[in-house]
Amino acid sequence: MTYQKLQKELFDRIEIQAKIGNSSNTLVAMRNFDNDNSRCLTSVFFLSQTKVVSEIQKFTEELQVADNRQYYYPVFSLHITIQNIRNENIQPLFNQEDIDMTKQVFAKIIPKHKPIKCHLKGLFELPTSISIRGYTDESLKDLVLDLKRELISVGVPDNKKYASDSIFFCNSTICRYQVQPNDKFFEIVRRNKNRDFDAVDINEVSLMTTNAVADQKYTNIINSIPLASPNFF
After folding, report:
1. DSSP SS3 for 103
2. Strand ranges across the sheet with 220-226
3. Burial tier of 233 (Cβ tally within 10 Å: 0-12, 13-18, 19+)
4. What CATH superfamily is the domain 3-20+27-222?
């Protein structure tokens, strides 16, 4: 079985478990995200300079017309999470020492890995959000496991819960629910369940502190580290 098929099985399993209230993943609670004052420490690949942005915008605009009560990510905030360090919380679950140690880890590990091709296709439905699914080869697993091991060794382990410790996928959240969406919203989601948004090359990783929706005014990019040139391998 290919790694992409394993990723799809995991996406599907998480969706099913979440629908019956048995999610093994950490979920962001439904609330008002305007001026959200939670903070997290995480690492991402920003989508703002990629060709997929226009396709994502078309879709989110359609959703927004159907239900404008939800929080829709603006272009700046669109991203793929690579590795969480500390999940969002009103009282930050990290300090400056954690940031400094994490910065050293990323400077050491990221340049050792090659860029990752990520195919953004299909929707990932959770009880409080809609994301786009991202499929990769095992190079994502290699990067994530290297980061996790090194973060543990310096005393700053990832504090999120995950459904698997060997299968990792990408996803890009495009909408967080502030209230329960209406029927028209979910009808659009159903029609676009398998929509293909195209592929991106993840060629750098940005370490940052931000809030639950990566709002630009609350985002501090600590550094952005390129992955190794493909010619390096």
Report:
1. helix
2. 79-89, 39-46, 204-210, 220-226
3. exposed
4. Cyclic phosphodiesterase (3.90.1140.10)
Rounded Cα–Cα distance for residues 35 and 16 (Å): 31
Reading the block at residue 52, the tokens are 């997929």
Domain boundaries, the chain: 3-20+27-222
- CA atoms of 13 and 19, how far apart (whole Å): 10
Q: What is the pLDDT of residues 151-202, one digit of tens each?
A: 999 999 999 889 999 999 999 999 999 999 999 999 999 999 999 999 999 9
| Torsion region of 205: left, alpha or beta (phi above 0 gives left; psi -120 to 50 gives alpha) | beta
Give the Cα-Cα-Cα angle 84, 39, 48 (nearest 5 degrees).
65
At 97-137, the pLDDT tens digits run 999 999 999 999 999 999 999 999 999 999 999 999 999 99
What is the distance, to the nearest Å, from the Cα of residue 97 to the centroid of all Cα atoms in its chain?
Answer: 24
Show the tokens assigned to 107.
């400077």
Element (H, E) at 190: helix 183-191
- pTM summary value: 0.95
